[in-house]
Fold these 2 entries.
Entry 1:
Amino acid sequence: MPRLSVIVITKNEILNIGDCLRSVAFADEVVVLDSGSTDGTVDLARSLGATVTQSADWPGYGPQKNRALAAASGDWVFSIDADEQVTPELAAQLREAMARGSFDAYMVNRFSNFCGRYMEHSGWYPDRVLRLFRRGTARFSDDIVHERVIADGKVGRLSGKLLHNSMPHFESVLGKLDRYSTAGAQALHARGKKGSFSQALLHGWWAFMRTYVLKLGFLDGQLGLALAISNAEGTYYRYLKLWLMQRKPAASGSQR
């Protein structure tokens, strides 16, 4: 049977890492790359059998996951986030897929939680993400945020669910809106993209329409509406922050 390495990056994930690592206990190796946790994440991960290393800097999600990938030694690699859990159904499919070896990489269906409910529409399901691949045939993009796996070989699909407890309560929604909009604005700025207040409004409006109308968010009821508004706010903040980044030199110059 091919050996499986599971890789996960962490920082202060004490509330999530236990359930995450227990869900992948079937793996031959679990590699955790931590970036300065102060809440007991490292100790808990080690107590659950993970090999934990720590990095002194934070290069962004894509580069950090490539570091974790470099530390894996299995024939196959499964990438999981600290706030995700592999269901027993998906675990069985992963083992079967590795044994068959029909493809070089596999996508799974991520099922995400928003304020206590797993969303069945709104563009959140089926959220197909590439997570399982033969070591040496794939790597992560260098994106600071919203990184993805880039695979060279044939890609298959598994039907099992990967549970994603990304935003289980409203406080987590607000926290991610701020962090991800900042990281997104920085990534756009690094690529030389220009922003404006009108762009922020337009992109925010389109994010709402896409989530609530095109992706059938209205079928998710009141929480579908809340999610559409949240997506609109996050997109608006990303482009607003980009615009404000570009205004900083002029603003500082005017105060002299």
Entry 2:
Amino acid sequence: MSDGSDSAAAAPWRATVLTLYPEMFPGPLGLSLSGDALARGAWCLEPRQIREHGLGRHRNVDDTPAGGGAGMVLRCDVLGPAIDAASPEGDLRPRLLMSPRGKPLTQARVRALSEGPGAVIVCGRFEGVDERVIEGRGLEEVSIGDYILSGGEIGALVLIDACVRLLPGVMGKHESGVEESFEGGLLEYPHYTRPREWEGRAIPDVLMGGNHAAIARWRHEQSLVLTRARRPDLLAEEAP
């Protein structure tokens, strides 16, 4: 007789998104590899409307910033209960807040998230969220780049897509997930396919020779060349 651990281990990866615009989901996540996996039940998506926990007749969710300033701030007494309802006690998923001041999202963090039970993702709007809910609910701030978006929803889509494609069975080959940019600390090498020559440009001979060791060396060398030229910071991170 099973103790239930097998069924728990088989639970699909689950993303819960707290947002003022749940209609933005699944969006592109409902197409291609992620969409096929969603339809198969390989992962679950749960958009939740923050405004359901809003205050008063108009379900208000924000207020002016303490100390003055432009814009509005999501209230802690709205967002806190919304998080509690979406992620009750015992939920082991990390709580993330998409934020331009967050730690940059990396492939290593994506892989770690994909190997866990899922994530609870809060999408900010306006000028941000009350700092007290970040502290009180242990939100991990995550950034997808040094620029400002209208809200956290697009960042959430990016994060979820990056995680879902690494789930078992989503991509056709295991190698597709490990021989990519950032997986080994380098940018990915160039790719080619038929025809062998196009507009005077030919596929490098080494790729057509069948010598797999030589191909591997060439690909590594090309990754180093591209990384030095475009992302030397990645090489600096690897230096002792």
